[in-house]
Amino acid sequence: MFLLFLIFSGPLLSAQTSGKITGIVQDEDGKGFPDVSLRLGRESATMSNGEGGFSLRIPAGKEDTLKVAYIGYKTLLIPFFMLREGMVIPMKPSINQLEEVRISILNGEQIVRNAIQHIPDNYPLSPFEANGFYREVGKLDSSYLSFAEAGLLVFNQGYGHRKLKDQLSILKERNLKKVGVNAVKNPFGTALKGVPYVVLNNDLLKHPGAILGKDFIKKYDYTIAGSTIVEEEEAYLINFDQKKAVNEALYQGTMVIIKGSFAIASVDFRLSEKGKVYAKPDIPLLQRPILSLLGYHFEKKEEQLSLRYYKINEKWYPYYYHIATSHRVRARKQKINAELSVSAELFISKVNGANRSATNALKVMPADYSFQHLVDDYQDDYWKTFDNIKPEQSLKRLIDQQAKL
């Protein structure tokens, strides 16, 4: 961890400050750096958006150090007195120690199997509660079908109770009626339902599925691609892809596995090019059987998922989930030939601990829930005391167009 030179454009913060700071995180080439974790002590956290931009809540009276982290890059610690509006935070890569990894006595598959075996050692087995920010976007080409956000209370059953389902409660929510000048309009006549639970169910360490499941490990090739640094610990970079002889739609991607403990710190994957020809439509959110009867045809084009974990008191907790799918949709009668894309992300800003007392008075979100609180416009100060992820500029420009009407 180290402190580096930062570029500023606004006033410094005072100890009495209560509000937020905004800025941008950049990679080594000066480009906006997405999905970077920014945490101010244990009270406030966010992630940079797809363009590297961020907005971070500042609790009143707190003078905590800002921690900026991304796998494979040097972790930054920025003192409170250096925080201000318009920060530009440049990230620097960690040194890749590929030569040392090449002489490892373990191969890629053995490392992955060890990681699975050590899940009970590396992740909390007991239930815990956490605060999260959720965003869901559905689009048909450039037209919005859905744009919803929510502050959620997550009751995670832990990694020792895989048969028990995680639960969610809504703290605050909004579902936009308009994005820019155009109304949010769904030609399918059925809403996106239960997507937050779909996101949670894609935690591969609980639900191994078609990647870490015991019947699937043998269907992949694993390669040690190098090493990196995660929270000052050396980690393997493991690339994986389905074997050529496997005639089904599986995945390709990268895992980051801590060398000392075999904890999985991150997983990123998408449909394998080798298996795309076997991909089948997968739209449980839109009641596909009914839509098929109405003349809609769906062709799956892509599926992606990202998972991130971070370490608290020797255990690794999930802090970011992101899923994205795209399908080609055709309907002759409705004159539709477009790309249907659904993207959902859940950012865990704070782990509250094992107590569930805070949820006693809150209703558990139903498994098929569709966000109900419709709003006419996007207000920047809507979240106030809730941690959130700053919207990207492309969306913000549309929102600002609406505000001028």
Summarize the structure in words.
It is a single chain. The radius of gyration is 22 Å and the shape is globular. With 405 residues, it is mostly beta strands. Helix content is 11%, strand content 40%. It is built from seven helices and 20 strands. It has two domains: 19-90, Carboxypeptidase-like, regulatory domain (Immunoglobulin-like); 108-403, no CATH class.
The major sheet is characterized as: 11 strands, mixed
Reading side by side through the largest sheet, how are the strands ordered?
13-14-15-16-17-18-19-8-9-10-20
- Share in helix: 10-25%
Order of helices and strands: EEEEEEEHHHEEEEEHHEEEEHEEEEH
Mean pLDDT: 83
What is the first-to-last residue Cα distance?
47 Å
The coarse silhouette is globular
Provide the gyration radius in Å: 22 Å
By DSSP, the count of extended strands is 20
Q: What structural class is derived from the secondary structure elements?
A: mainly beta
Descriptors:
405 residues, mainly beta, Immunoglobulin-like, 2 domains, four-stranded antiparallel β-sheet, 20 strands, 11% helix
